[in-house]
Design brief:
The longest helix is centred in the last third of the chain and has 17 residues. This protein is an alpha+beta fold and 360 residues long. Helix 6 crosses helix 7. It has eleven helices and 16 strands. It starts with a strand and ends in a 6-residue tail after the last helix. The protein is globular and about 65 Å long. It folds into three domains: 125 residues, Rossmann fold (3-Layer(aba) Sandwich), CATH 3.40.50; 108 residues, ATP-grasp fold, B domain (D-amino Acid Aminotransferase, Chain A, domain 1, 2-Layer Sandwich); 68 residues, Dna Ligase, domain 1 (2-Layer Sandwich). Bound molecules: adenosine-5'-diphosphate and magnesium ion. Adenosine-5'-diphosphate (ADP) binds next to strand 9 and strand 16.
């Protein structure tokens, strides 16, 4: 059986570009090379696509971008001519057909349905959630709306649009104060990695937080703060998804902000979370129902709060969760007895199965 060709996409025009590069290096190392030929496509912070043939170790450091062998490379949405088209230095254009794309992209322009739509147009199998599910999970307002409609509890929230900022800010803040208790969390709807998120303890902080969040997005949500433990589950699969054991994030600061996530400041990942069996099952049940309600496929990491009274509140679903060797998703799967190489293999196979490709 010939090896299948998989394209790993990394970087991207997103504030999570650097994390994507770290995740992608982990994914590239973990993909079993006896089964797959891997090609790597890097997307710069400005959104330029390059065929990258250098060392994997230069991806997380950002040095990949300066590699002399990089050539521009685009992806054709036409199903007849689908594939990556590389513009070689010789002046030739070379089409690279692939069996599957693994978009290891986080945040905007990658985890939000944009590239998923491109691969759907081309009819090329790709790892992870489809366009609509990726888009719905990326938008925090839509996530709340869809989950609530499906009977899944989320934090109480109020949405504000940029068009309401100038004339209606005071009115909207009155509405928030009526519906929600302090502290509140102010969030740009489509960001990730806690960028633009602030915790507001009073009206002045609320107004300042909203203005800051609008630097990052045209839509902002304000949520009531939840007092609870931050717990997460990894999900993998198609129609009958597998839900992992529960992991817990313990953070030292006010909340799990960008610094707590990526700078070594003492945040801890605990697997499995020290919770009761009943709580574990309640979390896994909510996670499975949320994954299905949001139309997720392939993989996702579902993040929840577990309150002192045992209530499970869904916070968000990450459709391309962090994939570094210390990230929650691969660790939870490893805890379930699935080693890294098998995780990537399974994810690729799920993509092929969804597309009806016979790969054996
Ligand atoms: N309603 C809330 N109550 C308490 N803490 C929250 C709430 N919303 C967010 N947080 C804190 O902020 C962090 C980032 O928020 P989240 O919605 O997960 O954004 P991101 O998509 O950037 O990860 C969470 O991990 C948590 O620590
Ligand atoms: Mg989060």
């Amino acid at each position: 059986m010939a090896k299948l060709k998989v394209a790993v996409l990394f970087g991207g025009r997103s504030n999570e570009h650097d994390i994507s590069c770290i995740s992608a290096a982990h994914v590239i190392r973990s993909i079993p090379k006896d089964k797959y030929d891997v090609i790597t496509i890097g997307i710069s912070k400005k959104g330029h696509w390059f065929k990258y043939i250098g060392d994997t170790e230069l991806i997380p450091t950002g040095e990949w971008e300066k590699h002399p062998d990089n050539v521009p490379c685009i992806f054709s949405p036409d199903p007849i001519h689908s594939g990556f088209i590389a513009f070689e230095r010789s002046g030739e254009t070379v089409t690279i057909k692939v069996d599957c794309v693994f978009p290891v992209l986080h945040g905007r322009n990658g985890e939000d349905g944009t590239v998923q739509g491109l691969f759907e147009l081309a009819g090329v199998p790709f790892v992870g959630c489809d366009l609509i599910s990726s888009a719905m999970c990326m938008d925090k307002d839509t996530t709340h709306t869809v989950l609530e409609a499906n009977g899944i509890k989320t934090a109480k929230w109020v949405r504000i649009l940029r068009s309401e900022l100038d004339e209606k800010l005071s009115e909207k803040c009155d509405e928030m104060e009526k519906k929600l208790r302090y502290p509140m969390f102010v969030k740009p709807c489509n960001c990730g990695s806690s960028v633009g998120i602030t915790k507001a303890k009073n009206r002045a902080e609320l107004e300042a937080g909203i203005k800051l969040a609008f630097v990052h997005d045209k839509k902002v949500i304000v949520e009531e703060g939840i007092v609870g433990r931050e717990i997460e589950c990894a999900v993998m699969g198609g129609e009958k998804p597998f839900v992992s054991d529960v992991g817990e994030i313990r953070t030292v600061g006010e909340f799990y902000d960008y610094t707590a996530k990526y700078d070594d400041v003492g945040s801890e990942v605990i697997i499995p979370a020290e919770i009761t069996e009943a709580e574990r099952e309640a979390v896994r049940d909510v996670v499975l129902r949320s994954f299905k309600a949001m139309g997720c496929e392939g993989l996702s990491r579902c993040d929840c709060f577990l309150t002192e009274t045992g209530e499970v509140i869904l916070n968000e679903i990450n459709t391309m969760p962090g994939h570094t060797s210390i990230s929650m998703y691969p660790k939870l799967m490893e805890h379930a007895g699935i080693p890294y190489s098998e995780q990537e293999d399974r994810l690729i196979k799920l993509a092929l199965e969804r597309a009806g490709v016979d790969y054996e």
